[in-house]
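task queued by scheduler; priority normal; single chain, no ligands, no partner chains; default sampling; output format set to C-alpha cells
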Amino acid sequence: AAIIADLLLCSNVFFVQYASEARSYGLLVLLTATASLLFLRALDRPTWMAWAAYALMVALATYAHYFGILILAPHVVALLGRGRPPIPWSRVFAAGGVLVIALLPLVLFRPSSTFGQVDYLNRPDLGDLYGFVLIFGSGKGQLLVAALCLGVLLYSILRQPPQERTPGERFSAGWSVWFLASWVVVPIAIAVAFSILVKPLFLPKYLIGCLPAYILLIAAGAARLPNLGAAGVVVAMLGFLVVNNTRHGFSHGAEWREAAAYLVEHTRPDDAVICYPFLVLKPITHYLERIPEARERVKVQSIAAGPYHPGGGAKDPDPDLAMIKRLALEHDRIWVVVTIMFPEKLNRHWLPRIIAQLDQTHPYHGGIDYVKNGGGVQLMSFSRLPPASP
C-alpha cells in the first residue's frame, strides 16, 4: 500500500504542480499529513507529550495556510467512529489549550496582506465541483482507477462483520477507512458550505491538504485486490498514467522567463513597456533583473492609478489613462505585457480600452505574440511607425 501511495502521489498532477511553486501548498500537505499521523499516535499512546505535539503541528499547519485549521474537523468526526481506542479527554482538552495559545499571535496580529485576497472568488456551482474532482483526482484516467480501488476497499470492509479492535490491533480496518474518508470529505464539505452560505472561499489549491487521505484510500484498495494478476493490471494502469501525466499533464505556469528574454531581444532602449493587470509587473521585473542586457534596454512602468493589494485577489485600481496617453506621446513603440485571465470581479476589464487608446496613436502592431504557445503570457507591441521592409 505504501509503494502504491508513493506512486500515486508522485504522479498526481495537482500535487506536483503546487509542490513546484514557491508557495505554501506543498508545506500544507506535509504539515496536515504529519498532524494526522500525530493524531493517530496520540490516540494509540495517549501521553501528554503526544497530544501537545499534535496540537503544535495543527498550529504550524494553520500558520502555513489558514485552511490548515480544517484538519481539526475530520479528526473530531473520526472520534465518532467505532474501532478506535478510548479517548483521553483530559489530554484532548489540554491539547486544545496548547492549540489556542499557539494560535493567539495569528489571531491578534493577523497580517494586513490577507485582507481581500479572496474577493475574486465566486460561489461554487456543480461545474466548479466537477472541475475540482478532476483536478484533485489528476484526470479522468486516474479517477477511473481510483473508483476501482475504492470499490474494492469498500467491498472488503462491508463483507467483514462489524467488530471492535482486536487485542494488539491499533485501529480496526473500518475505523481506518472512516478516518481517511473523513479527512477527505469533511474539509471539502465545510469549504463548500461556507462558500455558499457565508463568503466564497472554495478554491481547489486551498484543499490540497486532503490529498494524502485520498491517495491512501486508493492505495489501501489496490493492496486488497484478490490476486497478483489483478494487482498487476492496476499497477500497470497506474504506471501508464504516470508516464502520460509526465508527458502531458504537468503545468509549468506562466512563461515569465521566456517573456523577459523575448523583450530583451526585441525591444529598443527608447521603447516603453507597461503591464496589465498590474501584478504582472512583479514577475516580469523579477526575470528582467536577472538578464544583464535588460537593465538599460527595458524599462517597465506601472500604469496603476493607485496602490493595489500586494497579495493579489482584491479589486485592482483603475489604470492611469492619462499616463498611458503621455507614454504614447513620448515613445514610438509601446509593449504591453498581459496575462490571459481578467476576472471582472477584480476590475480587470480595462484591456480593450487600453488597446483602443494606444491604437489612436500607434496603429501598427502585429497582434499578440504568444510565448511558448500561450504559456500564460502575451506580449503586444504598438508602433507609431510602420515596420521596416525586410
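post-processing summary
- The longest strand covers residues 333-339.
- The CA atoms of residues 184 and 210 lie 5 Å apart.
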